[in-house]
Design a protein that fits this description.
Layout lengths: L2 H21 L11 E7 L4 H10 L3 E3 L2 E8 L2 E8 L4 E6 L15 E4 L8 E2 L1 H9 L18 E4 L8 E7 L4 E8 L2 E8 L3 E3 L1
Antiparallel strand pairs: 1-5, 1-6, 1-7, 2-5, 3-4, 8-9, 8-12, 9-10, 10-11
Length: about 200
């Protein structure tokens, strides 16, 4: 790799880093000594663990997405974690204070290989943060094209997989769904679709 390509790579990473900083202070990783790690959560304790980690001074990232569930013959939309059972935590692994994370209410343990916690590559976390808003909610994909396979995220057809047939000028997406052995054309808002 030439010196100029290394400089370009560094500039690209810094630009990406600056975009993450602009998204919100809670999602930044501006200290070069800190790394992102994965902590396993106790069942249904995502928000509790996030609050307790922030009270201890740790930076957290809990990406969520909109999901529709059927409960008592009704469809209920709610946010659910993108990675159920896990939360990202940023800290300096060289300091010994990271061990308190394992005893934080809502946390089972840090994901480790051996005795030390395993860092998550910064590129993975930064790409996830770029696809989320400041609160950690996953944003819909920017570009949907005809022929893409998508998963419906809400409504009576939640979790169905469909193929995009066309996109109208008012951002309505026409999808083809396989229902009862035949293809049915349905119009959906783009924010209710995720790439399958």
């Amino acid at each position: 790799m030439t010196r100029s390509s290394k400089d370009n790579l560094r500039i690209a990473r810094d630009a990406e880093h600056m975009l993450i900083i602009e998204r919100g202070a809670a999602m930044t990783c501006h200290d070069r000594r800190t790394s992102w790690f994965l902590a396993q959560l106790k069942p249904n304790c995502g928000r509790i663990a996030e609050r307790n980690l922030k009270l201890q001074g740790f930076q957290t990232f809990l990406p969520t997405e909109d999901a529709t569930k059927r409960a008592r013959s009704k469809f209920i939309s709610a946010q659910r974690p993108l990675f159920p059972g896990y939360i990202f935590v940023a800290f300096d692994a060289r300091a010994d204070h990271w061990r308190v994370i394992n005893s934080t209410m809502g946390i089972t343990r840090l994901v480790s290989f051996g005795r030390e916690p395993a860092p998550v590559p910064l590129d993975i976390v930064s790409q996830l943060m770029l696809r989320c808003d400041a609160s950690g909610k996953l944003l819909p994909p920017k570009l949907l094209t005809p022929g893409d396979q998508v998963r419906l995220t809400s409504g009576p057809f939640a979790d169905f997989v469909a193929t995009i047939e066309a996109i109208s000028s008012d951002r309505r997406v026409w999808v083809l769904m396989e229902i009862m052995g035949g293809q049915t054309r349905v119009a959906m808002p783009a924010d209710q679709l995720r790439i399958a």
